[in-house]
Write a structure and sequence with these properties.
Order of helices and strands: HHHHHEHEHHEHHHEHEEEHHHH
Domain Glycosyl transferase family 3 N-terminal: 6-70
Strand content: 5-15%
Number of strands: 7
CATH topology of the largest domain: Pyrimidine Nucleoside Phosphorylase, Chain A, domain 2
Keywords: Amino-acid biosynthesis, Aromatic amino acid biosynthesis, Glycosyltransferase, Transferase
CATH class of the largest domain: Alpha Beta
Number of domains: 2
Number of helices: 16
Low-confidence stretches: none
InterPro entries: Anthranilate_Pribosyl_Tfrase, Glycosyl_Trfase_fam3, Glycosyl_Trfase_fam3_N_dom, Glycosyl_Trfase_fam3_N_dom_sf, Nuc_phospho_transferase
Radius of gyration: 20 Å
Distance between the termini: 47 Å
Pfam family, one: Glycos_trans_3N
Oligomer: single chain
Organism: Spirulina subsalsa FACHB-351
Mean pLDDT: 95
Length: 346
Amino acid sequence: MSAVFRELLKKIGSGPHTGRDLTREEAKTATLMILRQEATPAQIGAFMIAHRIKRPTGEELAGMLDAYDELCPRLSSLGGESEVVVLGTPYDGRSRTAPVTVLTALILAASGLSVLLHGAEKMPTKYGLPLVQIGQDLGVDFPAATLPKVQQMLEQTGLGFFYTPSHFPDFTSLITYRDEIGKRPPFATLELIWSPYGGNYHLLAGYVHPPTEHFIQEALRLRDVEKYTLIKGLEGSCDLPRDRTAIITCQDPGNFDQRERLKIHARDYGLGGTEVPLTSRDELLAQINTTLEGKPSPLWPAVLWNGGFYLWRCGKVAHLPDGIQQAQRLLEEGQVATKLAELKGL
C-alpha cells in the first residue's frame, strides 16, 4: 500500500466537513501514482469515486493535466505561427445522436486548417460509438499509425489522430476502474481539455453540465491555454445542437477576463430541426458517405451547421453565414472527399 497516496485519498475522501481539495502539485502526484500503478487497486478505485462525488476543482484538473504531460509523448509543433485545432470529445463515445465530428474535422482540414483528434476504442461507462471506429469505417486505420506516422499525417494532410492506447499506454490502466466504478471519473473531464500536441493550438471542447465549464475554464487559465472554445454540445461533444440554443464560450489570446459568450440557434440560419438519432453504425456510415458525395442526407444540416460555425470561429471566414456557405461548397465540390482520400493514401 502507498502511504503517500493514502494521505491524498484521505484529504478528498473525508466528506464535506473535513475533506479538502488537493493542491495542483498534489493532484499531479496522485495522477502520476495512479497512471504508474504505484497506488493499490483499492486506493485507485476509492480515489476515482471520491473525486467524482466531490467534483474536481480547476486547480486539481490542472495538476492532473501536468501529470499527463509528464508521461505522455507529444506531437511536434508544425512551427512558425501554425495553429492546430484540437477537438476534445468524450472517450466513451456517442449512443443517442449521430456524431458529425469526423466530417467537421475533414471540412476544416479541406479549408487549409490543421486538425488533431484523439481518442480510443469503445470505453466505459457508455461504451458508445467512438471517433476511431468511424475513421476505420471510412477506410482510415488510425490505431495502426505510429506516432511518426501521425506526425506525417498532420503535416501532409492537415488531419491527425492520436490513438491514446498506443501512444500513451499508461492511460489503459484506467479503463478497468472506469468500468467497475460505473461512473465517469474526473479523468473523463480531463480528456476533453487535454492536448497531445506540442505547439500552438486552439482547443475545442464540449461539456454537459454547467459547473463543468467553470472547472475547465479555471484549469485552462492555470495552464496558460490562451485560445479555446467550449460548447454545451450533444452528449458532451463538440457537435453543436440544432434543436436548442447552442451555448458557446470563446476565449482568445490576451483576453482572459473578457470571454465572449455566444448563444446561437441553427433555426436562425435555416438549419434547425430534430437531432439525427444514432440508430446503427452501418446507417451512420451510409449517411456520412452520402454527405461526402455532396448530396443532401439526414446529416446535411448538422454538418453545415457545425462545419460553418467552426470555419467562422477558426478564422477562415468573416461571418457565420459565410462559413455555412463555404462548408457546403467544400462538400459539393468534392474537396472534403478528396481530403479523406489523401488520408487513406498515406
